[in-house]
Amino acid sequence: xxxxxxxxxxxxxxxxxxxxxxxxxxxxxQGWRVEMxxxxxxxxxxxxxxxxxxxxxxxxxxxxxxxxxxxxxHLLDHITNNQDFKGSAGAPSVENVKxxxxxGFLEIDEHMRVMxxxxxxxxxxxxxxxxxxISPQHTYFINxxxxxxxxxxxxxxxxxxxxxxxxxxxxxxxxxxxxxxxxIQRVNGSLxxxxxxxxxxxxxxxxxxxxxxxxxxxxxxxxxxxxxxxxQFIILACDGIWDVMGNEELCDFVRSRxxxxxxxxxxxxxxxxxxxxxxxxxxxxxxxxxxxxxxxxSPEAVKKEEELDKYLESRVEEIIKKxxxxxPDLVHVMRTLASENIPSxxxxxxxxxxxxxxxxxxxxxxxxxxxxxxxxxxxxxx
Length: 382
Hints:
Layout: E1 4-19, E2 22-33, E3 38-44, E4 54-62, H1 66-80, H2 83-86, H3 94-118, E5 126-127, E6 129-134, E7 138-144, E8 148-153, E9 156-160, H4 169-177, E10 182-183, E11 186-187, E12 197-198, E13 220-225, E14 231-237, H5 239-242, H6 247-258, H7 264-277, E15 284-290, H8 299-322, H9 330-338, H10 355-365
Helix pairs in contact: 1-3, 6-7, 8-10
Membrane topology: Lipid-anchor
Binding site for Mn(2+) 2: 60, 239, 282
Keywords: Cytoplasm, Hydrolase, Lipoprotein, Magnesium, Manganese, Membrane, Metal-binding, Myristate, Nucleus, Phosphoprotein, Protein phosphatase
């Protein structure tokens, strides 16, 4: 569940890179949570003859960050170094890759269990994992838990991973077969995901294999043939993002941002901020991977964006002036704007994605405001 801070930590960790015809950016932010338990991996060019392959993943830790941190450093090695992945001589086949990914997950989970037992079970943390392994011909989506990945192809959501929730019929059946129950949509009324790495308290049912436990470390793997013409971008994100934005919303929002900037870190920062302002209370991490045919910056879109920002600035000034005596608080300004039909707001992001612009104008016009009223708080914002 996790405890919350009095105000969100909005400092971000960023990275970006390019290679193998891909560009990526990432952003992660602690937000309202007391701890930062997310982790991520981004590797372009893999060792051992896989220089044209790339790997990206987001890990959403719970009950501590140890498992997420260990996976972000070691999961890729466990996947690419097992015999199932390597197969016989030459490049691994599609089946080799899929089997190798599954084996890698089971191996790292068992390895972490042994380490945990040596420490007398001191680590009770767990982590989801969502990732993509991109070869020259295929994109392999990998999912274990309720983080999510999606592929935008030809301006639409073409594929997205399915969240592993305890209430899903197949997941529920496995949990019940292992002697557990699903209460308040949680495993034994406690854990909100039905598949994860770590969480060894839920993996000790005697007579059941590793994939038959209350919580399973088995990933779902989907291979998608790459389309140079139509593939645009991939988004990997933890549930702190998906809790407040749907697949189509996020796809539309990212596409609209790519038309106004080619800075992928900036796009990811906008996603994270927008989700905070839409009410997400969780840690947030997002990786954006762009294929060669991703949307390009359009002068028309840039002009439209500048006009929107100017319009919002003038409206904030008008709202403050209209108040007469005393300056209205930021919540009042946001609510007033939310009640209006403002043209050309970014799709998917809507007014929340312009909160930084609105706040900057508000602060400029009201430099002596009391800091207590400065709410990055999203409580009761609208």
